[in-house]
Amino acid sequence: MQELAALFVSWGPLGLFLVALLDSAGIPLPAGVDALVVTLSVMRPERAHFLAILAVIGSLTGSMFLYYLARRGGQRYLNRYTISGRGAKLKVWFLKYGLITVFVPAFLPIPLPLKVFVICAGALGVRPPVFLAVMLAARIPRYFGLAILGAELGGDSAAFLRDNASLFLLAAAGLAIVLTFFVKFLDRYRTAGRDAA
Question: Which has more pLDDT, 42 or 158?
Answer without folding.
Answer: 42
